[in-house]
Amino acid sequence: MPTDHPTPPKHLPRVLGLGSALALNMLEMVGVGPFITLPLIVAAEVEPSLREIDLRGLDPASAEEVCERIAATGALDTVRARALDLVAAGKRTLGATGFDAEQRRLLELVADGVVQRYS
């Protein structure tokens, strides 16, 4: 009986490069929690009323309002700048590791990408 389904490839195509795979692995180990909670903590220093919000009870509209309040404090820029400083410091130490030049380059790309994407 004929089917409309194409024959599956003998080997699945590789769609993740080393850099993407490293980033996914890093996020699996660390999670995105630090990229979500740190801006809230920093923002609460500027706007103390943010400390009283029950995050568990937010609907999408309320969550958007809280996000706007966090952004208005400048916390996102503060956290991003701090993360970039930490990444820069880490990248400076890569030369003393056993990684070759290509591995160091990939690690640097992953670190920069994670900060840019999640901060």
Q: For the residues shown, what is the average pLDDT? A: 79
**Fraction of residues in β-strands:** under 5%
Provide a count of the helices: 5
Termini separation (Å)? 53 Å
Low-confidence stretches: none
Integer tally of domains: 1
Question: Which structural class do you get from the secondary structure elements?
Answer: mainly alpha
- Computed over alpha carbons, the radius of gyration is 20 Å
Largest sheet: none
What is the strand tally?
0
Residue share in helix:
55-70%
Overall geometric form = flat
Along the chain, the helix and strand elements come as: HHHHH
Provide the descriptors you would attach to this structure in a database record.
flat, 119 residues, mainly alpha
Summarize the topology.
Elements: H1 18-30, H2 33-46, H3 60-72, H4 75-93, H5 101-118
Helix pairs in contact: 1-5, 2-4, 4-5
What does this protein structure show overall?
The protein is mostly helical. It has one domain (18-118). Helices cover 65% and strands 0% of the residues. It has five helices and no strands. Helix 1 (18-30) crosses helix 5 (101-118), helix 2 crosses helix 4 and helix 4 packs antiparallel against helix 5 (101-118). The longest helix is centred in the last third of the chain and has 19 residues, at 75-93. The relative contact order is 0.12. The mean pLDDT is 79.
